[in-house]
Amino acid sequence: MSDSPSAASARILNEGDDVRDSDAEYALEYPAVCPVCGTTISTVKVVRLLRARVNFTSMLPRHGRAVICPKCRVILSAGLTIA
Fold first, then answer.
1. How many CB atoms lie under 10 A from the CB of residue 76?
2. For residue 63, what pLDDT is reported?
3. Among 37, 52, 72, 73, which residue's beta carbon has the most beta carbons within 10 A?
4. Longest distance between any two alpha carbons in the chain, whole Å
């Protein structure tokens, strides 16, 4: 069963209470609107991704980074709307 975006972001916020803050914060040149929570944002946060487990030989990197909304903490795509 799939969650609605608002239910998913609420679940992420609850899970995020135990998680360390982001690795970095970046200012946007222009304010943008988060497609999930609809908040106008002027910064984004960057979090580190770590591969926890894989059951096969993976050619993918062992770590990476994701950009998240500072309000709802949902992973953002490059398709932000300028406010």
1. 18
2. 82
3. 72
4. 44
